[in-house]
Amino acid sequence: MSGVSLHLSKREIKILLMLLDLEESVTTKELADTFQVSVRSIKYDLDNVREWFKEQKVELHTRRNKGIWLDIPDSERLTLKNEIIEVERFETYPDQELRINQLIFRLLLAPAHLTSQQLSEEIQVSRNTIISDLDRVEELVLSYGLVLNRQSRQGFSIVGDESKIRLLMEYITQKEITEYDIYQIMSYFVQSGQQKKMQEVHVGVHTIFQSIYQVALKEMTNLIDPSLFDQFNYAEILSITLRVAIAASRMQLHHTVGGYKLLTNQKVLQQKQELPFLLMKKVFDHYELPLLADEYFYVYSDVFVANNRQDIVGLTEELIKDVSEEVNFPFYRDQQLFTNLFAHLSLRLTKKHLYINEYNPFVDDIKAKYPQLFSAIQLASQSDIVGSALLINDSFIAYIALHFLVAYEKNQHEINVVRIVYVCSTGLGVTSLIEQKILEEVANVEIAGFASVLNAVDVIEEKNPDLVLSIFPIEIMNRPFIKVNPLPTEADIHSIQEEVNKILTQTKSGKVPRLIPRHQVKEKQGIEAESRDILVRIYVIYEELLKAFAEKLTCEYREAFLLHVMLMVHRITFDSQYENEGNIVKETLLAQQELVGKIEQIFAKNDLMVNQAEITALLNYIREE
User: Fold this and answer.
1) Main-chain dihedrals φ then ψ at residue 198, nearest 5 degrees
2) Which residue from 379, 413, 546, 573 has the fewest beta carbons nearer than 10 Å?
3) Sign of CA dihedral 514, 515, 521, 522
4) pLDDT tier at 387, thresholds 50, 70, 90
5) What is the C-alpha separation between 272 and 262, in angstroms, rounded?
6) How far apart, in whole angstroms, are the C-alpha atoms of residue 314 and residue 333?
7) pLDDT tens per residue across span 436-488
8) What is the mean pLDDT of the chain?
9) Angle value at C-alpha 273, between 271 and 277, nearest 5 degrees
10) Contacts of 101-104 spanning 24+ positions with Cβ under 8 A
């Protein structure tokens, strides 16, 4: 490594990294704004930066009115980036966070206590710096339920429950590993044969962990077959390797995670080619360590055992609701967010291999740019997820935050729309006429739903509209309300438009945060697939209803019954069931209780909620006794 690189300042290193990340040019003014210093300071920095590139035989291009840029292939950018990261990590004066991580690793992997003098010599900073760093170490280990033990004349050590110690080691390792390290490790895994060469990964430097980790990585490469890449993603491969190295390094110091019972079902695991077992056996054999059952459990599963009792639909709703309240932004209106987050949590909380400290490259950016959202998700997760204490770390939160950010960003580009709930009498024919009139004559609105006087409160609660229109003078709390005529008049339309404009003005001034899910544009293939699904669903439901009705169905009504079921499924699918009000015959429902139960089950099994008005209509096909 070049001598010049050692004299680069932190800011110069950041400028170097920025130039390597940018595809296009950047001006000195833009750099000055980014680093909040004067253009003159940036020009001084660039002298050193240019010198550094010259050492690497790379030209830094400059042109007036265009700025500065690099014209090199991506592979070379990556190599140079690594050069700088290595310089930054090990040659410049390490910052406090890095020192604290190094101190913890040294304390956890030392055979005995370490004095502040020994630590100061190893990390090459003054004893005073070490003393103040140790206060921070104490804080961090405390948050993991561990204790920094200070013994007079003997020095310092970290003590506590072994599983918590390992959790802390995982947390630090995941923070220390850079994207470059991961790229190195993964490309090492996928290279074949002779040309393999492994760069040293700088984690746990100057401790036994570093060499053990290299052995684990090497053994993992020999084991992993490309066919296994489908079973594990890179974060899991990384986690298994890390855990084996952590277990081996702690066992070298006679710290086990549980008892001393040997792992008994080794033959079965060998036959099944269980990757965590194969790697553990290789590394433990290398260091002549016994294969203990609890150690395998630590490597293979997790301290947090997947909680199958957690209701994930409920959890997803709770999380979205709590985060919405905390940051005062209505995420709960975005159906797509619910779908995506539900899928994410289902996978996350029911996986066989659940690695809680998985590597997540987004953590620092999200924490820096969206601190309020980050802490809101942290709070909500802690209160909503059962048995969550160990699961909820920065990586977990950042992955959830990404889903919320998608919803947030999407909203930034939406035209604002006012959502209306319309309270009227009943009859679907009339509602579609009213909807058409309002949508044609009032700008920037959408009808979120219709309600009758009887269910108005529930519908308003569920749909959470911005404006309620009603032909009845209902008492409505905390949202705008307009009484209109049964068929809206010109004056009604005028009042609605004025109210809508008022709501939109408040929205723009930031008083009412908005989030309108974007209407999905149905691709041709989408419509085709959707209609096919509905047809199949209709057929399944029709067959099941035939069985349920059995002898009760009048034979000559069979074809009419099929048509009725087809239209009924269509109505339910598109949220336009018959209104309950005025369409329920309680006596019929009571007389046919058993059949009603079967009908409800058939629809529920096919993910449709059928109301009592629809069931009453269906019961008209029963043979008269």
Assistant:
1) -110, 120
2) 413
3) negative
4) low
5) 19
6) 16
7) 888 888 888 888 888 887 788 888 888 888 899 988 887 766 788 898 888 88
8) 81
9) 105
10) 101/172, 101/175, 101/176, 102/205, 103/130, 103/133, 103/134, 103/137, 104/137, 104/140, 104/141, 104/158, 104/168, 104/172
Q: How far is CA 188 from CA 200, 209, 217, 218, 331, in A?
A: 11, 19, 9, 9, 42
Q: Is 139 a member of any domain?
A: yes
Bridge partners for 481 per DSSP: 468
What is each CA distance from 284 to 246, 250, 461, 553, in whole angstroms?
11, 12, 60, 70
Of 116, 144, 160, the last residue of a domain is: 160
The one-letter amino acid at 520: Q
391 occurs within a structural domain: yes
The pairing of strands 155-159 and 418-423 is: unpaired
Q: In this structure, are 204 and 268 located in the same domain?
A: yes
One-letter amino acid for residue 11 of the chain: R
H-helix or E-strand spanning residue 53:
helix 39-55
The residue with tokens 């997947």 is: 306
Range of the domain at 31: 4-90
The span from the CA of 331 to the CA of 515, in Å, is: 7
Check pLDDT > 50 for residue 3. Answer: no
- Paired with 445 in beta bridges are 418
Helix (H, G, I), strand (E, B) or coil at 59: coil
User: Which residue(s) pair with 553 in the sheet?
Assistant: 622
Can you tell me the mean pLDDT for 220-245? 76
Torsion angle of C-alpha atoms 555, 558, 564, 565, degrees rounded to 10: 110
H/E segment holding residue 61: strand 60-63
Residue owning tokens 């959470």: 464
User: Is the dihedral angle over the CA atoms 177, 179, 183, 189 positive or is it negative?
Assistant: positive
Instruction: Give me the CATH number covering residue 141.
Output: 1.10.10.10
Burial code (b: 16+ CB inside 10 Å, e: under 16) for 573-598 equals beeebbbbeebbeeeeeeebeebbeb
Whole-number Cα distances in Å, 189 to 174, 226, 242, 281: 18, 9, 15, 19
Question: Residue 497 and residue 19: Cα distance in Å, rounded?
Answer: 52
Q: Could you give the C-alpha distances from 545 to 536, 548, 550, 566, in angstroms and in order?
A: 14, 5, 8, 12
List, for residues 557-591, the tens digit of each pLDDT value: 888 899 999 999 998 888 888 877 777 888 888 88
Q: Which residues have CB under 8 Å from 52's CB, separation 6+?
A: 2, 4, 5, 8, 12, 16
Give the separation between CA 143 and CA 161, rounded to whole angstroms: 13
Contact, 52 vs 7, CB < 8 A? no
Report the length, in residues, of the chain: 625
Q: Quick one: tokens of 608? A: 């449709």
CA 21, 46, 11: angle at the middle one, nearest 5? Answer: 65
Beta strands in 193-271 (DSSP E): none
Q: Could you tell me the sign of the dihedral formed by the alpha carbons of 541, 547, 549, 551, in that order? A: positive
Residue 313, both tokens: 């639909």
Q: Tell me the per-residue pLDDT of 282-331, one tens digit each, with 9 for 90 and over.
A: 999 999 999 999 999 888 765 444 444 567 788 888 899 999 888 888 78
pTM attached to this predicted model: 0.52
For residues 455 and 342, state if they share a domain: no
pLDDT tens, residue by residue, 139-154? 989 988 999 999 988 9
Decide if 253 contacts 222 (C-beta within 8 A): no
- State whether 495 and 590 are in the same domain: no
Per the rule left: phi > 0, alpha: psi between -120 and 50, beta: everything else, 257 is alpha
